[in-house]
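Please check both lines for our workbook:

___
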Amino acid sequence: MANRLSQIATRTGDNGTTGLGDNTRVSKDSLRVHAMGDVDELNSHIGVLLCEELPAGVRELLVEVQHQLFNLGGELSIPGYELIKPEAVAQLDAALAEHNAQLPRLAEFILPAGSRAASLAHVCRTVARRAERAVVALGAAEQIKDAPRQYLNRLSDLLFVLSRVLNRMNGGDDVYWKSERMVRMAQE
């Protein structure tokens, strides 16, 4: 069993460094720490989304996503280690197909709005995109596995789809962008 935290305030980070899972120390502004922090923030936002009323299947899916995001953070904290498996990406692909199949096709852009749960899913989506960009930046500087980047890419897509599902939960709909071009086209 791995070491568990027995003391939170160690003061070892007072000099601007933090310890990775392999016991090396890096600057708190390193690309790796940024990526870890963005994944942690995403997991926290999903925790807030889980406070909302959700369909049971969506809740179960998001709880599993939280566990996988913890694995992803662990993988990022140990250079060269692998915790996110291709099966986790495949699980998101399957969830995407399942939830997207029940939605009408989009004819226009939608705003990140609607119900509180849908809006929170949109916040999670944007944080997932930021985490993905951080992982891409880390991958450009250091060798990392493909699965973390792929997982975040699929997850942001899934969160978009789930926002649409959640907007329809109680008979609602997407909030459509009112583009001036579309208004002009409708008037012609």
In short: The chain has a mean pLDDT of 90. The CA atoms of residues 103 and 165 lie 7 Å apart. The chain is about 60% helix and 5% strand. The beta strands are 17-19, 25-27.
